[in-house]
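2024-03-11 09:14:02 DEBUG pipeline.ingest accepted 1 chain
2024-03-11 09:14:02 DEBUG pipeline.ingest length=263
2024-03-11 09:14:03 DEBUG pipeline.predict start
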Amino acid sequence: MDSHDLKLLLESVRDGRLSPEQAARDIQILPFQEAGEFAKVDLHRRLRCGFPEVVFGQGKTATQIEGILRTLVAHDQGGLVTRLDPQAALHLVNAFPDGEHNALGRTFRIPSKRDTEPKLGQVVIVTAGTSDLPVAEEARVTAEAWNCEVTLIADVGVAGLHRLLHQLDRFHKADALVVVAGMEGALPSVVGGLVDCPVIAVPTSIGYGAHFHGVAALLAMLNSCASNVVVVNIDAGFSGGHVASLIARRMGQARQSAQASEV
């Protein structure tokens, strides 16, 4: 939908040929823009879901990713790419000098105008081991892109629980936690039993043979006895960071509203 289409839509409402409710639905679901012959960029994802479309870099060429990003940037939406290989990352760094490449998390981010807005909500990301950091970094970049205050706590797995207990004060400030763990995947259950907020568990494909590339951790987390633990897919740092941000932002907005009403 471009400005001409929008003008026609509004004229239809004015003339009584279309209800305001139907027009609102059309505005929400119609607009997208083709980026070459390879992508149809959803420009109203932010309107519907609160966040712009994110580019999954795996399987895309560097030129395709650049084309999608240029479409998003042209509409003041910034851009976030996940699962980026090193060659594509080098291409994007040259194409977008203002972008931020996170080599460990395999992400590339172009800030949007909303980055200057006050932070909403507190997300704490926890890893069981250092080997889980690539997935945790993907979650961190995502939560920061969605304008949350983010804290990353690394290497506090169940093999040394005393390390975890030293972090309790930081956990209790969180609106949502993302707990990233491989091996047997026990850490989310432990953390879930210590906090009063949602815990987003992210299983990783880190471990030995019977770990089955993350399936063992996934099943352990799905069977958690901590009732505040929910689980996303294996190595899905983006999903963990995104869900935690949705929760944290709502909490942050509620606090802002409460403070405004007190004034």
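2024-03-11 09:14:41 DEBUG pipeline.report DSSP finds eleven helices and eleven strands in the chain.
2024-03-11 09:14:41 DEBUG pipeline.predict end
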